[in-house]
Amino acid sequence: MSKKGERLFGTNGIRGIPNEDLTPEFCMKIGKAVGTFFAKTIAIGSDNRLSNSMIMDSVIAGILSTGVDVKNISILPTPAVQYYCKKNVMPGVIITASHNPPRFNGIKCIDEDGTELERSREEKIEEIYYDENFHVATWEHIGREVEDNSAADLYISGILEKIDAKAIRGMKFRVVFDAGNGASYRTTPELLSRLGVSLVTLNANPDGLFTSRESEPKPANLRYLMELAGSGEFAVGIAHDGDADRAVFVDERGNFIDGDATLSLFVRNYIREGEKVVTPVSSSDAIDDICREKGAEVIRTRVGAPVVSRTMIDRKARLGGEENGGIIYGDHQYCRDGAMTVGIILDIMARKRKKLSEILMEVPEYHITRKTFPRSGDFNQVREKLLKVFPDWERDDTDGIKLRKDHDWILVRPSGTEPIIRVFTHSRSLDSSRQMCEDVGKIIS
Ligand code: MG
After folding, report:
1. Where are the domains of the chain?
2. How far apart are the CA of 392 and the centre of ligand 1, in A?
3. CA of 323 to the centre of ligand 1 (A)
4. Class of domain 14-149
5. What is the tens place of the pLDDT at every residue in 38-60?
6. What pLDDT sits at residue 94?
């Protein structure tokens, strides 16, 4: 797949097209490198993409050849695999392409604390891979594969422990949930059942072609869920992305709730005085307003869930998350977790005994417009131009370039994986954030 020295793991694991990039031979070699690197029993799970058996069996064969045993925990949401790893202090491999289109698949490695592997440790795996420095077990020491079906229950029980399940059961919520043909088809309905929810499911049949809707949980892909949630019958509508590390919500009126507002709601209701919240430079100023009011500190990072998780661990922060529906609750585990987020939002609704649209009014109102533009040429030219057009705006170089004046800000960053530039514009009013986005778009083109 790649030339020597080239990076294999992107911001969220290895991604590619099966039998083009992800051939059985390549996947087996990755398995050999991973087994050699960890040198102890590895858990392996997957989402429900069509090529999973081919990729998983190839990775497993590679791992077993190094003399390392495998626990096969089968089809699960990514955070359920991570929770299994954390609870069993075991490294893991997940076969998933998250929210990407159906033709993609991917391989990602988990450390034995359940978090995504640090970059420096991924580099060691890449080194073993390119040098073909694999451990080869003699015939009597070849690894064994064991199936373990306990992961889903372990995961759901872990979530139930961290919320007021009794109060939620008392509310007898009626919920509509869209699994989007993804890996959450079993676990999130099971969690909701155990919370006494009366449930209507949409697209809860695992389907690697994702025939019902695209996997990214954005309004354009959730029209039917929004329509149903707004019918007056439901307290909330819920959807995940394909591997269910993210959750998005629709209120009882059928309004899609921006991931930023969900994150703010979480922080507002779970933060304690003196604590820290970790979030990338791309999420809204609402987090800062809430933390100021609660006597808490905000730590801003580069964009990307693994960096948020790592910073949370390093800086001893319990709460964190991104503006795309990826909430990280350190009391549970240091990674984005869709079903945990569902538990948290129902917990807040049960505690407040108010409608979701009413609870959302607690969150300071800001608007972020997000858009991508094709990138041609050097990003530094874009940076220089922006600095010229906005000379007196406060500059932040944490990720790409962020320019701020009061509560208006612009974040422009090149994508690490595609030839595109991502633009975020933030303001008190929707019109103004849209206008700013258009203006920045013109500057880029
Ligand atoms: Mg995902």
Report:
1. 14-149, 154-362, 367-444
2. 38
3. 13
4. alpha beta
5. 999 999 999 999 999 999 999 99
6. 98
Active-site residue, from 46, 98, 215, 283: 98
Angle at 439 between CA 438 and CA 442, to 5 degrees: 90
**Distance, CA 15 to ligand 1 centroid (Å)?**
13
The amino acid present at 400, given as its one-letter code, is G
CATH topology classification for 367-444: TATA-Binding Protein (3.30.310)
Cα 242 to averaged position of ligand 1 atoms, centre (Å): 6
**pLDDT digit string, tens, across residues 169-223:** 999 999 999 999 999 999 999 999 999 999 999 999 999 999 999 999 999 999 9
On the question of a common fold for 14-149 and 154-362, the answer reads: yes
Instruction: Report DSSP state, residue 202.
Output: E
CATH number for domain 154-362, candidates 3.40.120.10, 2.40.30.110, 1.10.1040.10, 1.10.10.10 = 3.40.120.10
Is residue 98 annotated as part of the catalytic site, yes or no? yes
pLDDT at 139: 98
Q: In what order do the strands lie in the sheet with 105-110?
A: 14-16, 105-110, 92-95, 42-46, 70-75, 145-147
Beta carbons within 10 angstroms of residue 218's beta carbon: 16
Is this structure's pTM higher than 0.85? yes
CA dihedral 196, 199, 205, 206 (to 10 degrees): -50
